Amino acid sequence: MLRGVLKIAVLASAILFSLLASPVLAHHGNAAWSTTEITVKGTLVDFVWRNPHVLLVWTTKDDSGKDVQWTGEVGSPESMMADDGWTKDTFKAGDDLMFVVRPAKSGAPNGIVDQIKRADGTVVMRYSRQGGSAAYAAPLTKEDQEKRDKAAADADKSKN
Amino acid sequence: MRTLAAFGVAAAALLTFVPPASAQQGTAAQTDDAKPARPGLEVPLVTPGPGWKPCAHCENEAYKEEGRKKANVDKRPFDAHDISGTWSGNPKDLEVNGMPMNVAAVPPFTPYGKKLFEATQSDSPQWNTKDPENTCDPMGWPRWLTYNFGFEFVVLPNRILQFFEWGHTWRDIWTDGRKLPENPPIGRYLGYSVGHWDGDTFVVESTGYDDRTWIAAATAQLTGTGKPGGFPHSDQMHVEERYKRLNYGLLQLTLTITDPKVYTAPWTTSGTITLVPNTEMGENFCVPSDSIHFNEASTIPTLPK
Questions:
Q1: Å from A46 to nearest chain B CA?
Q2: Which of A25, A114, B5, B281 has the most neighbouring CB atoms within 10 Å?
Q3: CA-CA distance, B281 to B58, in Å (whole number)?
C-alpha cells in the first residue's frame, strides 16, 4: 500500500459518475480504470501539455519510502483551457499537488484525474471531462466538494 | 445484428438522456440571482492576447452561451443562403465534440459489410486497437464532421470551404456546377464534394472515398462482441448532407450515407449544430508522435497483462 495514496471511498462521486458517464471516450474506453476514486499526493515531474490528452507525471512515496512515478490523464489542452483556464504555464516540475484519480484496474500507477489541488488547497482542476460531455458541463456541486474535502481530511487524520 | 440494434437503442437512450449538468446550467440560466449564474464563467477566458479570440473548443459552455446571448443568435436577422461562421456541436446532443451519428439507426450489414465490420474489432476489450485515430491517420468522412472541435464555412464564389479545427484541415465543396466524378482516379479521405442550393437548404453530395476510414467508432457494447471497433464503409460510399440555417445561430443537418456494398439501406442522422460567435479557429493537429507517446504512457500500461 502506498503511503501517499489515501484510499477514499467517495459515495457522492460514485453516484456522480454513474449519472454522468458517457458510453464514449475520445481516445480509449473507460473499462481499464476503476470507478472508485483515490487521492494521491505527489510532486510534479512533468506536465505534458499536448494532444490528445494532457498528461501529468508525478512521484509519490510508497511504504518503504521509495518514489513511485504516477501518470495521470486529463482532457485535451483546449478543454483544460476552457474549463479551468489552464495554460502552458499552469504547472511546473516540483509543484506539490493533490490528485483525485480513478486508478487503473491493472494496478499500474496510472489514473484518470478527476480533481487537482495545490498544497495550499487551491483547486486548479475542478472536475473531470473524461466521462463525456455531461461531465464536461458539470462542475462539482458544493456538497460533492465538501464530501471530498472531508474524506481527504479524515484520511489525513488516520494517517497521523 | 439484432444484438447490435438492441445495443444501439440502449446507446441512443443514453445519448438522449438529459444530464443533471445541462439541467443545472439551464436552471442557473433562468435564475438571475443564482451564483454563479453559469458555472464556468468564473474561469478566466484564455486567449493568446488582446485582440485574439479563443477557439470554439477553448470556451466552456457558459462562455459559449454568453457569446450566443450577446450575438442575439435567436432573433438576429440572417440570410438563409449564407452558412458562413464558426460552428460546433450542439451540447444538447450529448457528444463531446460535434453531432453524434445516430448509431441506433445503423442499417443491417451486407455479408461483405459484416466481414469488414468484424475486421475492425479490437484485440482488446479496453482499447480500440484498430482505430485509425490512434496514430492520427485521417479520420475520413463523416467522422471528421461528427468529431469536430469546431468548423468554419467560408463562402467563395465557386466553392464553399469547410475548415476543421481537429486536424487543422479543410474540404472543398464545389458550387461551380461541376458534377461528381463518375470514376475518381484515386480515393480521398474527404472525398469529392459538390454543393447546390435546394430552396433554403444547402445540399452537399460527395463520393470517391478512401475505404480505410470509419464512419464512426463502435463501442464494445455496440459491436456486441465485448470489443470495440468501427463502422466501415466502402469506396462506393455516397454521402448527402443537407444544411439548413434555422436561425442565425442554429444549423440543421440531415446526413445520409448510402453504401450498398456495406449497408442494406441508407443510414440517416439528423441533428443541429450551433454557431459559436466571438471565436476563431485554433490549431488542433493530431500529431502522430504525441499520440504514440500518449498511447504508450497512459493507455497501454493500464491494459491487463
A1: 12
A2: A114
A3: 10
Percent share of chain B, pLDDT over 70 = 85
Please give, rounded to a whole number of angstroms, the shortest distance from the CA of B73 to a CA of chain A. 21
Output the pLDDT for position A133: 31
Q: Which phi-psi region, left, alpha or beta, contains residue B53 (left: φ > 0; alpha: ψ -120 to 50)?
A: beta
Predicted confidence at residue A8, as pLDDT, reads: 42
What was the ipTM of the complex prediction?
0.82
The shortest CB-CB distance from A20 to any of B21, B45, B149 is to B21
Among candidates B43, B290, B304 on the partner chain, residue whose Cβ is nearest the Cβ of A85:
B43
CB pairs under 8 A between A and B: 145
Task: Flag whether the pTM goes above 0.90.
Answer: no
Angle, alpha carbons B18-B22-B28 (nearest 5°): 140
Closest chain A residue to B99, measured at CA? A133
How far does chain A reach from its first CA to its final CA, in angstroms? 16
Task: Please provide the distance, in angstroms rounded to a whole number, between the alpha carbons at the two ends of chain B.
Answer: 31
3-state secondary structure B135-154: HCCCCCCCHHHHCCCCEEEE
Q: Is there a contact between A104 and A158 (Cβ–Cβ < 8 Å)?
A: no
Produce one character per residue of B29-51: b if its CB has 16 or more CB atoms within 10 Å, e if not.
eeeeeeeebbbbeebebbbeeee
| Cβ atoms within 10 Å of B158's Cβ, excluding its own | 10
| pLDDT number for residue A135 | 39
Give me the phi and psi of B195, to 5 degrees please: -135, 150
pLDDT digits (tens, 9 = 90+) for B234-246: 999 999 999 999 9
Cell of B160: 464553399
In contact, A135 and A142? CB cutoff 8 Å: no
CB contact under 8 A, A104 and B282: no
Cross-chain residue pair B61–A136, CB shorter than 8 Å: yes
Identify which of B24, B43, B303 has the shortest CB distance to residue A138. B24
pLDDT in tens, chain A (160 residues): 445 444 443 333 333 333 333 333 456 667 778 878 889 999 999 999 999 999 999 999 877 889 999 999 999 999 899 989 999 999 999 999 999 998 998 989 999 998 999 999 999 998 876 653 333 334 556 666 676 667 667 655 655 4
